[in-house]
From TrEMBL:
InterPro entries membership: Chloro_Bact_Ser_Proteases, PDZ, PDZ_sf, Peptidase_S1_PA, Peptidase_S1C
Record-stated family: Belongs to the peptidase S1C family.
Keyword terms of this UniProt record: Hydrolase, Membrane, Protease, Serine protease, Transmembrane, Transmembrane helix
Gene Ontology MF terms in the entry: serine-type endopeptidase activity
Superkingdom to which the source organism belongs: Bacteria
Gene Ontology BP annotations: proteolysis
Official protein name in the record: Trypsin-like serine protease
Signal peptide start and end residues: none
PROSITE patterns: PDZ
Domain (PDZ): residue spans on this chain: 335-393
TM helices/strands, residue ranges: 21-44
SMART domains given in the database record: PDZ
Length: 407
């Protein structure tokens, strides 16, 4: 019997074995199909915070990817959100007197000045700066040069509200002014301290640069670092004010930023943005802000008295000229010669005498009256200062309490 024939014959016993094998095969197929379905369910069901493809938990990374706002809320963002509502736009109208000559007579004016009639007229000039609200009573801190000569002041909040402002006190030498507005539920900026600033820490300038070109009340935010502290600006570059211990920053400060706050990473005001050094007229990364600690002392005086009270020492001094140096027998021309002394004055009470030479004021060497004045900058009535005086070739330190200048 051939193999084919054997294979083609089905005996009763071989049928039973084939049927059993077939049933086991069907059962195994169902089991395999069930396993595949269960496996597919496990693979395709994402775990909490997991990967849909693998089911492996990667909650930290994917949560950040699904919610990018969490990782983008930097300290700068939070600081801007905290202070931004209290930053205001200060719009002013100033009037200046203009003298003009008839058209076409400019060329002849130098030659026939007395013969060519001229006329004068008042011209209204709009200006704009920044400021920030420091009290629920409506006090707004800004630079004095922002509101100087203003006949009309409008204060615009970030939320769009607009108020008429009034200057309640200003001090050109400190370049600080306080504007008062009447409003309810005013946002107030948090004032920090400028006494412990670190070079390299975040500095955020907030204000309204070129605000007259933008139809928007929201302030602009620029960020940089504290570039330097305790910067003294030379008198010839100061345009009339005295700028000592200034904060230097590379955060962009442009026209219109003046009077706005310089803020740290905690959202606290650390300075008042004031001016920049520039050749182009725009920001070149060298901006300066008045330290908030100094500004707060001026603000307190302005709110209480409407001015910064002049301090009184009670001495009259001369610069040490070559002639005077020869007469008093000194080769050192640095210092101030005490030529007069008011009885009962702080200097008199401290033991200063006529003929003394004041060499230092608060530890700062002084060569003339202007340097002495700058050394006293920031001192208020009630403060204690030191004078280093020379008498008969011997040096001594005199401590005196400043009083208000008598009327």
């Amino acid at each position: 019997m051939s193999l084919l024939e054997v294979g083609s014959k089905i005996t009763p016993r071989s049928w039973k074995e084939s049927k059993s094998a077939w049933l086991w095969g069907v059962a195994f197929g169902f089991l395999l199909l069930g396993a595949l379905i269960i496996g597919a369910t496990v693979v395709l069901t994402p775990t909490p915070g997991g990967d849909v493809r693998t089911g492996v938990a990667v909650a930290d990374n994917n949560q950040a990817n699904r919610d990018p706002g969490t990782s983008r809320r930097t300290a700068i963002v939070q600081a801007a959100e905290r202070i931004g509502p209290a930053v205001v736009t200060i719009s002013v109208v100033q009037t200046r007197l203009v003298q003009s000559v008839p058209f076409g007579s400019d060329f002849f004016e130098p030659f026939f000045r007395d013969m060519i009639p001229s006329y004068r007229y008042r011209e209204q000039i709009p200006g704009m700066g920044s400021g920030f609200i420091i009290s629920q009573k409506g006090y707004v801190l800004t630079n004095e040069h922002v509101v100087r000569g203003a006949e009309k002041i409008t204060v615009i909040l970030a939320d769009g509200r607009s108020f008429t402002g009034k200057v309640v006190g200003s001090q050109p030498q400190y370049d600080v002014a306080i504007v008062k507005i009447e409003g309810e539920k005013l946002p107030v900026a948090t004032l920090g301290s400028s006494g412990d600033l670190m070079v390299g820490e975040w500095a955020i300038a907030i204000g309204n640069p070129f605000g007259f070109l933008l139809n928007d009340t929201q302030p602009t935010v620029t960020a940089g670092v504290i570039s330097a502290t305790h910067r003294d600006i030379k008198a010839e570059a100061a345009s009339g004010g005295i700028y000592k211990n200034m904060i230097q920053t590379d955060a962009a400060i442009n026209p219109g930023n003046s009077g706005g706050p310089l803020v740290n990473a905690q959202g606290e005001v650390i300075g008042v943005n004031t001016f920049i050094f520039t050749k182009s007229g725009g920001s070149e990364g060298i901006g300066f802000a008045i330290p908030i600690d100094a500004a707060k002392r001026v603000v307190d005086e302005l709110i209480r008295y409407g001015k910064v009270r002049n301090v009184w020492i009670g001495v009259g001094t001369w610069d040490i000229t070559p002639y005077l140096a020869e007469r008093i027998g000194t080769n050192d021309r640095n210092g101030l010669y005490v030529a007069s002394l008011e009885k009962g004055s702080p200097a008199d009470k401290a033991g200063v005498k006529i003929g003394d030479i004041i060499r230092k004021v608060n530890g700062t060497p002084v060569g003339d009256v202007n340097e002495a004045y700058r050394a006293l900058f920031g001192a208020n009535v009630g403060d204690t200062i030191t004078l280093t005086v020379e008498r008969d070739g011997k040096s001594a330190t005199r401590r005196l309490v400043l009083q208000e200048l008598p009327e």
